[in-house]
Amino acid sequence: MDAATAAKDRVDRALALLERRLLDLKSKAAGAGRVSEDDLFAPRPSSESDRARIHELESAGRDAADALTRAADAIRQTLAEQEGR
C-alpha cells in the first residue's frame, strides 16, 4: 500500500468513526425524547441530562476534528514526499 492510499484510509476511518459516534449520540438523545432530528443548534437546555448530552456532542466534535487534523497532516506529508521524489 502506498502512502497516499494509507493516508486516504486514515481519513476514511476517521470520518466513519465520527459518523458512528454522532449517530449513537443522536439515537440516545432521540430515544429519550430530548432532541429532534438534527437539532444541534437548539438553545442550551437547563436539565443536567441535556447538559451531559451537549457535552458528549462537543467532545465527539473535538475528537473528530483532532482525527481529521491528523489525517490531513498525513496527507500533506505524503504529498510533500511525493513531490520531493
How does this structure look, described?
There is one protein chain. Helix 1 (3-31) packs antiparallel against helix 2 (48-83). This protein has helices at residues 3-31, 48-83. The chain is 76% helix and 0% strand. It has 85 residues and is mostly helical. The longest helix has 36 residues, at 48-83. The relative contact order is 0.19. It is elongated and about 55 Å long. The two termini are 17 Å apart. The chain contains 2 helices and no strands. The mean pLDDT is 78.
Low-confidence regions: none
Helix content: over 70%
Q: What series of H and E elements makes up the topology?
A: HH
| Strand residue percentage | under 5%
Radius of gyration: 17 Å
Q: What's the tally of helices?
A: 2
| Main sheet attributes: strand count, strand direction, barrel closure | none
- Could you report the average pLDDT, rounded to the nearest whole number? 78
Quaternary organisation of the protein chains: single chain
**How many runs of DSSP E, i.e. beta strands?**
0
Shape by Cα distribution: elongated
Q: What structural category do the secondary elements indicate? A: mainly alpha
User: End-to-end distance, in Å?
Assistant: 17 Å
